[in-house]
Amino acid sequence: MSHYITSKMSNPLYFRVLNRNLARFCVKNVRKASTQTHGNEKETHFGFETVKESEKAKKVHEVFENVAQNYDVMNDAMSLGIHRVWKDIFLDRLSPTKNTKLLDVAGGTGDIAFRFLNHVKNSNQEENCHVTVMDINSNMVEVGKIRSEALKFDKSVISWEVGDAECLPFKDNSFNAYTIAFGIRNVTHIDKVLEEAYRVLQPGGRFMCLEFSHLPNSAAQWVYDQYSFQVIPVLGKLIAGQWQPYQYLVESIRKFPDQKNFGSMIESAGFRSVTYENLTLGVVAIHSGFKL
Amino acid sequence: MSLVTLFKSVRINLRSPCTLVSACRFNSTTNNTNNNSTEQNEQYEEDIKEKILCASLKFVPELGWSKDALSAGAQTVGYPGVTHGLFHSGGADLVHYFQVSSNNKLVEILKKLQEDSNPLPPVEFVEKACKERLQMVVPYLGKWPQAIAIMSLPPNVPNSLATLLTMVDDICYYAGDRSVDFNWYLRRIGIAGVYKATELYLIQDKSAEHEESWRFLNRRLEDAVQLHDLISKSDVASQGAKDTALSAFVTARNILGLNWNR
Lengths: 292, 262
Description:
The complex is a heterodimer. Chain A is an alpha/beta fold. Chain A has 11 helices and 9 strands. The chains are: A alpha/beta, B mainly alpha. Chain B: GO terms for molecular function: lipid binding.
């Protein structure tokens, strides 16, 4: 991939074409953002756009259908590899023990699931542990399955499902840990997802969410904003050949509630002992709650 | 005088197990829940935490003051192992719980001792109290160095100092100390020193029934009494001792974050 980019980049013509493309995309985005959707149906946000609630799921689906192949490469490029550290810390906070039945929602490519399996293996707590990976997008699940086979994980400890986080296809009290990493931002009804998480967890079960958040320091937020809006979509265009999904990514981060508000949403769903922890100044936050 | 009352109020606060929770918490934003139900909710959470901590203590001799002990404890009371995440500082929360609950047990014992028909003289009372308290550590002796190490880590120092000060304050109070001068500090710091020294002696004591430790405790208390007599008999020395005691107390106070000059 890198070879491909460098050889392309050395060509001045490529840059001219790219610039034209970028300009076109920018214009399109501005136009899109200014269109208002009206109607009787409830509206929600898709990035900075306002769309009908029924349309959001479809739009998010399209985004991830397109990026599935390049998802992991882009994560590394955009976060300079730090997303790996965030996910490691996330699993360290969960510290799974024996008999942990984990449901990893929106875990398509298996980043959290593989870390979970490695964590229990390294801490000698493998006994009776199992992870169910669920994602609404079958393309993402396919990528995960292929990776799982390449990494030679035992098929008996990991299972893959395609399903909706707002309506989980599982019985009540069937898991004791629920993780959702960089996924809850993309759902239409956050409250429904939280209620479903509460339903499938057994008493004592832990809900954990890793998600982009807001920086309490306004100077840092400014720097972060510059990076998000000026660099990330460009990276998306250069590496994955797509502007729109990454424009959506940074916009949806701005629309997601901040640490305190999201914390109270988790509490409203019935979770207790709700806490959060900021990583990298609040670029991402780990929220945690218990069903007691 | 105001120092004394403030110290007392801190002592009362530390008795409640609510201090176990140090992480940021949310105040429920749903306005329709009144204060009463929030209190009930918190009590409910605290009860569960206490149940898990209590069950975890049984696993300490085997698994140490650790997340493993907490998850084993959670499983015995019917929760999954991952519930150990309720305790953000892991082993430190478990040690703190043990210290607080042992202090509460000690108060019960001291109350009974005080109500005894022929009360012990103060020095013997203090010796008996220290011994009773150290006896509570004995079942966990193999893992006690680990507990000391955990509680010496900078983030845990305020908690461990506070539990120690609460304990010596209880001992002094029930031994009949009603002083309102600098002796108040001297006695407490003196007993804290003797207690901690004996604790260190105890963890490497191999004698039967830990007899050597109890003799060590007896000798240290004798030393303390002699020192106390010496100081109170000499005016110059007493001024110096007062200054030392005061500065030590102010330091401890600042570490605990209790600044009443605000």
